[in-house]
Write a structure and sequence with these properties.
Elements: H1 2-21, E1 32-37, H2 56-68, E2 74-79, E3 82-85, E4 90-92, E5 104-108, E6 114-117, E7 119-121, E8 127-129, E9 133-137, E10 147-149, E11 152-153, E12 155-156, E13 158-159, H3 179-182, E14 192-197, E15 203-211, E16 217-221, E17 231-239, E18 250-254, E19 259-262, E20 276-278, E21 284-287, E22 294-295, E23 297-300, E24 303-305, E25 316-317, E26 324-325, E27 331-337, E28 340-342, E29 345-349, E30 354-361, E31 364-366, E32 369-373, E33 378-381, E34 415-416, E35 419-421, E36 424-426, E37 438-441, E38 443-444, E39 447-449, E40 452-454, E41 461-463, E42 468-469, E43 472-474, E44 477-478, E45 489-493, H4 504-513, E46 526-529, E47 532-533, E48 539-543, E49 550-553, E50 556-557, E51 562-565, E52 570-573, E53 576-577, E54 582-585, E55 594-596, E56 599-600, E57 615-617, E58 620-621, H5 624-631, E59 640-641, E60 646-648, E61 653-656, H6 680-683, E62 706-708, E63 711-715, H7 719-725, E64 733-737, H8 743-746, E65 754-758, E66 761-762, H9 766-776, E67 781-788, E68 791-798
Parallel strand pairs: 1-2, 2-5, 3-6, 4-21, 5-23, 6-24, 12-18, 21-27, 22-27, 23-28, 24-29, 27-30, 28-31, 29-32, 30-33, 30-34, 31-35, 32-36, 33-37, 35-39, 36-40, 37-41, 38-42, 39-43, 40-44, 41-45, 43-46, 44-47, 45-48, 46-49, 47-50, 48-51, 49-52, 50-53, 51-54, 52-55, 55-57, 56-58, 58-59
Antiparallel strand pairs: 7-20, 8-9, 9-19, 10-11, 10-20, 13-17, 14-15, 14-17, 15-16, 18-19, 25-26, 60-61, 62-63, 63-64, 64-65, 65-66, 65-67, 67-68
Length: 800
């Protein structure tokens, strides 16, 4: 553990020396060759500031020629302000590498805005067609998969029409493929179907190829999730259909006629708009290999925009995680050492922002803004060929007598000792839903620190397997997560490593006979510490299927609690689980798990746990009822009940006051002001998580009313309320208002109903309802027992 942390420190020191010392290297004996580039420059220019090159490609060739001639200077390409439209990705090979003493830098001029665009500007002559739609012939490009104007991505013609803030997909409809709608489509070939996985474990995408003999669409796709299923029956939409062009801001491109159609939004002057059509998947690619890596090339202060969507190429299975991926991004690192990208902006992208693929060492991704992109923010993904005894689908496994029992990887074809630090990642997964702010799989010792991640459809940080661990996840601020999917966490992981078997009985027998197999892949401990997590649609921290060899401490979890499912060697201590608690699911015998000295605000919510690891004890409860309920499982004999006396919980300061009961029993205060990004530029942009009122202590004041899923409710408090509802006692939660269209109304709940239980937990008051909700909302719905007309009824409340 200490060696791992020391390694991160060496990487950070080296990178900081580069940032702070880049200008003094020349005075230390390293000469500098500087080339300038400007949008108004010339290919035949000298590359000076007064006579700059006209493209980055030209400056890149000049550097390559100098290096080929034996020039060992430090090279510095300075890009003057403006937008640079690329006709092809810029690929850097090993022969263009810098060295630690003479790095190769491509940067924006200080104070200038430099945009590297993967799109092509369209020169259009618009004509009115009908009352609202305009059309223009396109001559310069053959296809348009994404269209941008006015600093935003425009919406392809779709059904249902896009509605801001509606999840998933900005709107969905069960009748998107209904025969009465499809019959209106003259030629849907080239259209797309986007649907959620039936379990809402991600999104799936299909390209329409035509119609069959019955008139229904034919299509290919659905491979974007490694746990395939049928389309979700209701959560789906279609796009790129000519007949669905009917809403302001929508567009459609007829490839055969090369005609672009657009329906302007109110106030838009179409002739004054600059339209950009996405053309390239990638802007920058560094491509080497383990024997001949690209080294010491850095990008600073650039903006990357306008890549095409790649959702139909997202089909490489990633071991036995739920993920499929496509190995590309606006910036691709593939076979590099000591390279990085700093203080950049990634926006308006169709696919991934940064992808670190296969062999990479000491890649440094620091200080970047990543927003409004179709795929993942930052991905570190190794090559499956580096894994021993790999399996690629949940239901697959290697027979026990064929398992390679040598610990660790069998090659170096994976990212290791890399850093993602001080990045603001938000509004990602605008197209794909199996995404993460930061994704790690088949990698080792990745440092993820001081990132702020929010507004994501799935997990903020995701680790896809145990191979090969050693990651340090610290000081991150992750919230507004799992907004469009379900059964995940703000932090999410799997550990379906080589020991794991899809049949639980077989797996039990394997690990009983071969306990040493557990850590063959998860060879180094992964640390999660000093983070702030919030997930209102799942768990704040979710270690799923086999996730093993973790230490989790000093984290502030604001809503969803912490889950540990069927893994080994997890030590969880000194965390604060606000308004929620501990969710142990399906534990192994001899798991050696430890859960101790954590502050919890609900009873432990176990599912199929017959063996309680090494220690589940000495935790801090705020309600004696919760401790008593937990002790019925034969655990928490030394659990403590007390008052944490938070300094200012309403403002998000969960520091325990000096006279708090738990400090004397071993709890150590967690730093509350070190979460998330630290750069001034990013701090000024970043949001903060919602801080919910504490659901501890006394219930509501007499007559107090609260908002709940669109309605208003209160405690049943008087004999009059008991009599009016026909209750047997003065207990329950009374619905006062249920507005039409609210989640409560859509579930069939009415004013005057009384909630008697939530997920079979009695709800004698609002406090009990809140605690039951916190314990079960990860399911994506709540089963409520409602008292109405002298009868008990059960309703399902979907959590939207």
């Amino acid at each position: 553990m200490n060696d791992t942390i020391f390694m991160y420190g060496v990487i950070r020191l080296r990178q900081m020396m580069w940032i702070c010392g880049v200008w003094v290297l020349a005075s230390c004996g390293t000469d500098v060759t500087t080339y300038y580039v400007a949008p108004t420059g010339a290919e035949t220019a000298a590359g000076t500031k007064d006579h700059p090159f006209g493209s980055l490609a030209t400056a890149k060739r000049a550097v390559a020629e100098e290096k080929a001639s034996g020039n060992t200077n430090r090279f510095d390409i300075v890009m003057l302000p403006g937008t640079y439209f690329l006709s092809e990705p810029l690929v850097f090979g090993p022969e263009e590498s810098g060295t630690p003493d003479a790095p190769y830098t491509i940067r924006a001029e200080e104070g200038g805005s430099v945009v590297l665009s993967a799109g092509a500007p369209l020169q259009l002559s618009w004509q009115k067609q009908g009352d609202h739609i305009w059309k223009a012939h396109v001559q310069t490009v053959d296809s348009i998969e994404s269209l941008y104007a006015g600093g935003k991505a425009l919406t392809r013609a779709r059904y249902p029409n896009r509605a801001e803030g509606v999840y998933p997909f900005g709107g969905f409809a069960a009748d998107a493929l209904a025969p009465e709608r499809v019959v209106r489509w003259a030629n849907p070939e080239g259209g797309y179907i986007h649907a959620m996985h039936s379990g809402r474990w991600g999104g799936m995408h299909y390209r329409i190829t035509g119609k069959d003999a019955t008139g229904m669409p034919t299509y290919v796709g659905g491979w974007q999730n490694n746990r395939p299923s049928a389309m979700h029956p209701t959560m789906r939409f279609v796009e790129n259909i000519a007949e669905e062009l009917d809403a302001p801001g929508e567009w459609y491109f007829d490839r055969a006629e090369r005609m672009l159609y657009y329906l302007p939004e109110e106030g838009e002057q179409i002739d004054e708009m600059d339209f950009i059509a996405a053309q390239l998947e990638s802007v920058i690619q560094l491509k080497g290999n383990e024997e001949h890596p690209v080294t010491d090339i850095f990008f600073e202060g650039l903006t990357f925009q306008h890549t095409v969507p790649t959702f139909m190429k997202t089909q490489e299975q990633l071991m036995r995680s739920d993920w499929s991926i496509y190995r590309n991004g606006a910036v691709l690192f593939d076979g590099t050492e000591r390279c990085g990208i700093h203080n950049a902006t990634f926006s308006l992208l169709g696919g991934n922002a940064v992808f670190v693929s296969n062999y990479n060492r000491q890649v440094d991704i620091t200080g970047n803004l990543i927003e409004h992109i179709g795929g993942s923010g930052i991905a570190f993904v190794g090559n499956a060929a580096a894994a021993r005894s790999p399996s690629f689908r949940y239901e697959e496994y290697v027979p026990a007598n064929e398992i390679d029992t040598i610990a660790g990887p069998k090659s170096e074809a994976y990212p290791a000792d890399c850093i993602a630090e001080d990045n603001l990642i938000r509004y990602i997964g605008t197209i794909e839903k199996q995404v993460a702010g930061i994704q790690i799989q088949l990698a080792a010792r990745i440092g993820v620190r001081h990132n702020t991640i929010y507004q994501v459809p799935r997990a903020g940080i995701n680790i896809g397997d145990g191979a090969w661990g050693g990651h340090v996840i610290e000081y991150n601020d992750v919230f507004q997560t799992v907004l469009e999917t379900g059964d995940h966490g703000a932090f999410n992981s799997w550990g379906r490593d080589r020991f794991w078997h899809p049949n639980r009985a077989v797996m039990d027998s394997l690990v009983k006979v071969h306990p040493e197999w557990i850590l063959l892949d998860a060879v180094e401990t992964t640390v999660i510490r000093n983070n702030r997590f919030r997930c209102d649609h799942g768990w704040d921290v979710d270690l799923d299927d086999g996730s093993s060899n973790y230490q989790i401490y000093n984290n502030l979890c604001l809503a969803g609690g912490l889950k540990l499912r069927e893994g080994f060697y997890r030590k969880v201590y000194n965390n604060i689980l606000v308004n929620n608690g501990f969710h142990p699911h399906v534990w192994f015998e001899n798991s050696h798990d430890v859960f101790t000295r954590n502050i919890v605000m609900t009873a432990h919510q176990q599912i199929q746990v017959n063996h309680w690891g090494d220690t589940v004890d000495h935790n801090f409860f705020v309600d004696s009822t919760d401790l008593e309920a937990t002790q019925k499982y034969g655990i928490e004999r030394n659990g403590v009940v007390g008052d944490p006396r938070f300094v200012d919980a309403a403002a998000g300061n969960f520091t325990l006051g000096k006279d708090a009961d738990f400090l004397a029993d071993g709890f150590v205060n967690i730093p509350m002001n070190e979460f998330g990004v630290v750069a001034d530029r990013l701090k000024a942009l970043a949001d903060a998580p919602e801080i919910s009122p504490l659901a501890i202590g006394s219930s509501l004041a007499a007559g107090e009313v609260i908002q709940w899923y669109g309605g208003k409710l209160k405690n049943v408090e008087t004999l009059g309320e008991q009599s009016a509802a026909g209750l047997a006692e003065v207990a329950g939660v009374l619905l006062l208002e249920v507005p039409a269209g609210s989640p409560l109304a859509r579930a069939g709940i009415q004013p005057g109903d009384v909630i008697l239980a939530c997920e079979d937990t009695p709800t004698e008051d609002v406090l009990a309802l809140r605690k039951a909700e916190a314990s079960h909302k990860w399911k994506g719905r709540l089963l409520l027992d409602i008292w109405r007309n002298q009868q008990r009824n059960r309703v399902e409340l979907p959590l939207e």
